[in-house]
Specification:
Elements: H1 36-62, H2 76-89, H3 91-101, H4 110-117, H5 128-139, E1 147-150, E2 156-157, E3 161-168, E4 173-179, H6 187-200, H7 210-224, H8 227-241, E5 247-248, E6 261-265, E7 269-271, H9 282-303, E8 305-307, E9 315-318, E10 323-325, E11 331-333, H10 336-351, H11 354-364, H12 373-386, H13 388-391, E12 396-397, H14 398-401, H15 403-417, H16 429-444, E13 448-449, H17 451-461
Parallel strand pairs: 5-10
Antiparallel strand pairs: 1-3, 2-3, 3-4, 4-6, 7-9, 8-11, 9-10, 12-13
Length: 469
């Protein structure tokens, strides 16, 4: 779309040939269900499908079929159906699926873990008609006057909204995040209804703090759905990192920002994941890895803010070698008490002091008073493994260390040998998504980073008695 034609109606619909656009790698084009009733009905349909699938599986078993899973709902077809339903609903339903997919493999049936993993990287996109209605709602019936051009083909899509590009009348190229209609109004009902459905289907892990997960999911989603709040987080990050030449944060285009629209400068560069391929100098990989690691520690101990969605799609290697930070929707305010607890934990991990590690993970909520000695020792081993870069002298080679697969093996031992099937504390879920995600990013780009040195410096700089910089 460029400008307005005479026979374009008040909804911004035109009957002339539209601008050719480049296809994206997002999901299918499907209409977003907008009303609470419609979304409730879709979750009800999902529950019904599980019931039918479970009945069929029960009959199969009665006549000699077998399955290693306790629940009759655990099968590949059911898992794929769940992922597709959640991707079409977007919003809170999809976010819950993303959160469930973060659980360790021993806590979820393999089929569901694999199927839900796709929700972390893509979502279905809105048809053009819904995009146009969203633009009218945000900017009025003559919304097109605010743009020189607007591309209806999205360049990205996620659980809350999708991103389009547009050119303003004054020549600024923007990335415009458009929230899916009805998502903000349906958060509470979606989260509760879906959690109930998944519990009924016995998909959620035994012992899961479902109330804690629901409360945390609602808090995060209500925050993510407020694009003016996201704009404020972007400004705060820009203030924190504005003078650091290693980072690039886009400028906001305030006149087009609303609670459901976020307009910002479009950054250009190379996707961070390209560093995983051939043709990139190891020095660049190492520098990007160090930049990611230092940002994580500064968020936790200095900023009091943490962007908790470390997907490759949220980072860009811009032309001047800076790390572009693209999305601040999933940003958590770090409570000072939690920061103090993790300071104690990380210092104990640096020293590999098992007694202090035990005390720290108990304070945070990973270890309970009635956990056995075997569970306690295995949990300490697990933390030492997951955070092994912190205690390593010199450059830690993330690709060679193979932390993730080794962590899964120890997690299986914890679950099946020691019977510890409890999910992590809900209030740590998003923080650990960032911790684990940063390890995964550094592993994928094959970075070698002196994590211990960076951590010790950040801890020293942010100590309560540290001199002001």
């Amino acid at each position: 779309m460029s400008g307005r034609d005479d026979d374009e109606d008040d909804n911004g619909n035109d009957n002339h040939q539209r601008r050719d656009t480049k296809r994206t790698t997002t999901g299918n084009r499907t209409r977003v269900p907008t009303s609470r009733i419609e979304r409730f009905a879709r979750i009800g349909l999902l529950t019904g499908e599980f019931a039918i699938s479970g009945a069929a599986e029960s009959v199969k078993r009665a006549f000699g079929g077998s399955s290693s899973d306790d629940s009759v709902f655990f099968n590949t077809q059911g898992a794929e159906r769940l992922a597709k339903r959640l991707a079409r609903m977007r919003g809170a339903a999809m976010k819950i699926g993303q959160m469930i997919s973060l659980f360790d493999e021993e806590l979820l049936p393999k089929e569901f873990a694999e199927a839900l993993a796709i929700l972390r990287d893509s979502a279905d996109t809105m048809p053009e008609s819904q995009v146009r209605k969203s633009l009218v709602t945000a900017y009025g019936s003559q919304w097109w006057k605010k743009f020189e051009s607007f591309d209806f083909e999205p360049i990205a899509a996620a659980s809350i909204g999708q991103v389009h590009t547009g050119m303003t009348k004054d020549g600024k190229e923007l990335a415009i995040k458009i929230q899916y209609p009805g998502v903000a109004e349906s958060i509470e009902s979606d989260v509760r209804n879906l959690a109930t459905a998944l519990q009924a289907a016995r998909i959620l892990p035994v012992g899961l703090d479902i109330d804690g997960i629901v409360d945390e999911a609602q808090r995060q989603l209500q925050q993510e759905a407020d694009y003016l709040l996201e704009a404020d987080y972007l400004r705060r990050y820009k203030e924190q990192l504005g003078d650091d030449p290693r980072y690039c944060i886009p400028d906001l285009y305030d006149r087009l920002c609303t609670p459901r629209m976020l307009a910002m400068e479009r950054l250009f560069g190379v996707p961070l994941e390209d560093l995983a391929g051939a043709g990139h100098d190891q020095r660049v990989r190492d520098e990007m890895g160090a930049t990611l690691v230092e940002l994580l520690f500064r968020e936790l101990f200095e900023f009091g803010l943490m962007q908790t969605d470390p997907n490759f799609s949220n980072y860009l290697l811009v032309q001047d070698g800076k790390l572009g930070l693209l999305d601040f929707g999933s940003t958590s305010v770090i409570d000072n008490d939690l920061s103090v607890q993790y300071r104690a934990l990380f210092l104990a991990l640096i020293d590999r002091d098992r007694d202090r590690i035990k005390a720290a993970i108990k304070d945070i909520g990973f270890l309970l008073a009635d956990d056995s000695a075997a569970v306690r020792e295995c949990l300490i081993d697990l933390f030492l493994l997951v955070f092994s870069p912190m205690g390593f002298e010199g450059e830690f080679d993330f690709a060679e260390a193979n932390i993730m697969s080794r962590t899964q093996e120890l997690g299986m031992e914890l679950a099946f040998k020691h019977g510890h099937m409890r999910a992590p504390p809900a209030h740590t879920m998003f923080l650990h998504r960032k911790l684990d995600g940063t390890v995964l990013l550094c592993t994928k780009i094959k970075a070698r980073v002196n994590v211990k040195q960076i951590l010790k410096k950040v801890l020293a700089d942010t100590a309560p008695n540290a001199p002001a910089s």
